[in-house]
Write a structure and sequence with these properties.
By secondary structure, the chain is mostly helical. The chain has five helices and no strands. It has helices spanning 2-14, 30-47, 56-72, 75-91, 101-124. Helix 2 (30-47) runs antiparallel to helix 5 (101-124), helix 3 packs across helix 4 (75-91) and helix 3 (56-72) packs parallel to helix 5 (101-124).
């Protein structure tokens, strides 16, 4: 019985996928993916504000950033971030925006900052 247990342990340790590997490094797409994800979450919060949805200028800015990302080769990373946000939305809907002008202004500023970050990540992206 002992020999069988030892052989089984050795077989498990030598099986494909069980070897020691270095920690995975972030891909070059990770900063763009994460910035997109956070921008979409910020937009979703803004869209829950009682006073209205994302202002057209901000929506247009996001679409322009997506076009820029596609032109620079970072379009896949943007898609991944949007996909991550959609998956999270299904599992855990975000908190709604509180009523009032101050929470809406705060949500709009947060979304604008996230778009600034996304623009910077797209500019830094190197295919």
């Amino acid at each position: 019985m002992r020999a069988t247990a030892g052989m089984l342990s050795a077989a498990i340790l030598l099986a494909p996928g069980c070897e020691r590997r270095p920690e995975p490094r972030n891909s070059k797409e990770e900063p763009v993916r994460r910035a997109t994800y956070l921008a979409v979450l910020a937009r979703d919060l803004l869209d829950t504000c009682p006073a209205g949805r994302t202002p057209p200028i901000e929506a247009q800015r996001y679409e322009e950033l997506k076009r820029l990302a596609a032109q620079s080769g970072a379009g896949h990373a943007v898609w991944l971030g949007e996909n991550d946000a959609a998956a999270m939305r299904r599992v855990s809907p975000g908190r709604p925006c509180e009523a009032g002008a101050v929470p809406q202004a705060s949500a709009l500023m947060a979304y604008s900052r996230r778009l600034d970050t996304l623009a910077g990540r797209i500019a830094e992206y190197r295919p």
